[in-house]
Design a protein that fits this description.
single chain, alpha+beta, Structural Genomics Hypothetical 15.5 Kd Protein In mrcA-pckA Intergenic Region, Chain A, Alpha-Beta Plaits, 3 domains, 7 helices, 15 strands, 26% strand, binds uracil
Length: 241
């Protein structure tokens, strides 16, 4: 249960005083009944909201699969540059739906966003990292020697990358599966073996696979099965209702 005005503020409807005015004017209905007391306690998990006659999605929990396009920062907000949050309705940022980890500005592909801070944290915690698969195109040919170097674990200047699987799918393109998620990890791994990444695309994140029906910039909420598998990846019970 929470106060109606607090719920509306969290959903990004307006400031505290703005939503209080709306409620007092009778613009908000809860389960079909106009509620004019902004302080009324309502059950945010079950109550149906309308605002000025239009249904208002009151969920405070969201889990999103986004097909990130190139050119957007993976950040909750940025003063100068557009971010992945610009692709979602404003309410998602208001309720704290945040990217899980980062993709570089020029990287495309699967990005998970969630309101569950504990899930976010656990999926990224060192030692708990989930597998991620990337398709990397590079500026030259890939060879068996590269596959072996990745499998042996690469020595980067500030850390030793764990053994990673590299599968060559075209002369200049590989699928790489890593268990870690260090800054620019894939680009730096290729750089170490003398190849520069010219295009990077993430296909999987833990048990999630990028939905091929999503084109760049499109997103959808996770299905119940995807969500259950993801919580399992994070060794968490859930999702919480
Ligand atoms: N590794 C990189 O180098 N960049 C990304 O965006 C993700 C992994």
């Amino acid at each position: 249960m929470l106060r109606l005005d607090r719920w509306l503020v969290t959903l990004g409807v307006g400031s505290r005083s703005e939503v209080q005015k709306l409620v007092r004017r009778g613009a908000v209905r809860v389960d079909g009944v106009a509620v004019t007391d902004p302080g009324k306690q309502v059950d945010e998990r079950s109550a149906a909201l309308t605002l000025q006659g239009q249904p208002l999605d009151g969920r405070l929990t969201r889990h999103v699969m986004l097909h990130k396009p190139a050119g957007l920062l993976t950040a909750a907000r940025d003063k100068k540059q557009p971010t992945v949050m610009d692709l979602l309705p404003e309410a998602y940022a208001s309720i704290g739906c945040m990217p899980v980890g980062r993709l570089d500005k020029d990287t495309t592909g699967l990005l998970l966003l969630t309101t569950d801070g504990e899930l976010n944290h656990r999926l990224l915690a060192p030692g708990r990292h989930v597998d991620k698969t990337y398709r990397a195109q590079v500026d030259g040919e890939l060879t068996q020697a590269h596959v072996e170097a990745f499998a042996a674990g690469l020595h980067l200047f500030d850390f030793d990358a764990q053994p990673a699987l590299l599968e060559i799918i075209a002369p200049d393109t590989g699928l790489v599966t890593v268990h870690e998620g260090k800054f620019h990890q894939i680009k730096r791994m290729f750089s170490t073996v003398g190849r520069e990444v010219t295009a990077l695309h993430r296909l999987t994140f833990g048990s999630l696979t990028l939905d091929p029906a999503l084109s760049e910039g499109q997103w959808r909420e996770l299905t119940e099965d995807e969500l259950a598998a993801l919580y399992n990846d994070a060794h968490m019970e859930g999702p919480q209702p």
